[in-house]
């Protein structure tokens, strides 16, 4: 009888162990860092972020990166086979001067936030003088040169136009939109540069902010500018779904920005074929409100 009772007790204990859920890991520490912590020079500049997440036992952690411009980052999953730490990383490339930050937000198994990895950005303007030569920047006064006309005999890539096009319509207010940035050499001479000396970027700026005041944003397309004959164009495109009746697009639409940037040393080399003779036309903005007007 005693033996029978002992077997019953053992069976109950084993059964309880089998049905008891496995203990969930707990995040005990999360940190974030950025490199570089400050930058002064040509923009956009790419900042690299690294974080460390530490747990006390095996399990699954869900987290996302958050940042100062309130951009939405995807939720990511990290599996731990044993207690300890794992590193995570991301980057942010932007042209908005000032102080910014990114941090890690733990969503599960327990909510927690890291420190803010703060960095400062200062974007340089104007031409870089060649060593030993002192002369004013060669710019053209706004309003004198009309868009599309060729300037004097020098290379002049310009952020010429941002186009919106409906490529597919789902309903009256919903459709697939293609956003295209057009770079045009409005100078009278070909622009010839190396693969990493000049680039065009198409940004989606934060929603609900007037174009002139918007900073930060997300790069949705980019292309190197290596060889652009006088009068020739270069295009970069991106597509997304749009709902003009929704609060996110209809009430608080994004702005889009076309931006041309140059390597800081481009004016110091021996070639004048890669010198942009007018830096006043390297940025073009267009508001998403015009997409709403198309989807009516």
Supply the key terms:
296 residues, mainly beta, Immunoglobulin-like, 2 domains, four-stranded antiparallel β-sheet, 46% strand
What does this molecule look like?
- With 296 residues, this protein is mainly beta.
- 10% of the residues lie in helices and 46% in strands.
- It has 3 helices and 18 strands.
- The strands form 5 sheets. Strands 2, 4, 5, 7, 8 and 9 form a 6-stranded mixed beta sheet that branches. It has a 4-stranded antiparallel beta sheet with strand order 14-13-17-18.
Low-confidence stretches at least 5 residues in length (pLDDT < 50)? 17-22, 126-150
Mean pLDDT across every amino acid position: 82
Helix content range: under 10%
Task: Quickly count the domains.
Answer: 2
Largest sheet: 6 strands, mixed
Helix/strand layout:
Blueprint: H1 2-19, E1 27-35, E2 38-41, E3 45-55, E4 59-67, E5 76-80, E6 84-94, E7 98-108, E8 112-113, E9 117-123, E10 157-169, E11 174-185, E12 191-192, E13 198-204, E14 218-224, E15 227-228, E16 233-243, H2 247-251, E17 255-262, E18 283-287, H3 289-294
Parallel strand pairs: 2-9
Antiparallel strand pairs: 1-3, 3-6, 4-5, 4-7, 7-8, 7-9, 10-11, 11-16, 12-15, 13-14, 13-17, 17-18
């Amino acid at each position: 009888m005693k033996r029978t009772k002992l077997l019953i007790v053992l069976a109950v204990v084993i059964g309880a162990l089998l049905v008891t859920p496995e203990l969930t890991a707990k995040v005990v520490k999360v940190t974030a860092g950025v490199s570089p912590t400050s930058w002064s020079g040509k923009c956009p500049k790419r900042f690299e972020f690294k974080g460390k997440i530490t747990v006390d036992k095996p399990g699954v952690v869900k987290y996302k990166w958050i940042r100062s411009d309130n951009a939405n980052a995807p939720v990511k999953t990290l599996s731990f086979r044993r207690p300890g730490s794992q590193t995570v990383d991301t980057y942010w490339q932007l042209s908005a001067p000032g102080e910014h930050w990114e941090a890690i937000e733990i969503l599960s198994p327990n909510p927690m936030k890291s420190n803010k990895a703060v960095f400062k950005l200062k974007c340089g303007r104007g031409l870089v003088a060649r060593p030993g030569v002192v002369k004013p920047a060669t710019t053209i006064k706004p309003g004198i040169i009309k868009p599309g006309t060729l300037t004097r005999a020098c290379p002049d890539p310009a952020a010429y136009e941002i186009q919106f096009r409906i490529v597919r319509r789902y309903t009256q207010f919903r459709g697939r939109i293609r956003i295209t940035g057009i770079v045009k050499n409005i100078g009278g001479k070909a622009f010839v540069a190396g693969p990493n000396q000049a680039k065009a970027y198409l940004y989606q700026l934060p929603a609900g902010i007037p174009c002139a005041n918007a900073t930060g944003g997300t790069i949705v397309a980019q292309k190197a500018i290596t060889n652009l004959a006088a009068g020739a164009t270069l295009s970069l495109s991106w597509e997304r779904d749009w709902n003009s009746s929704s609060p996110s697009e209809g009430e608080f639409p994004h702005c889009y920005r076309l931006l041309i940037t140059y390597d800081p040393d481009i004016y110091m080399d021996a070639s004048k074929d890669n010198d942009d003779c007018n830096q006043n036309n390297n940025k073009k903005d267009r508001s998403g409100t015009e997409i709403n007007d198309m989807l009516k």
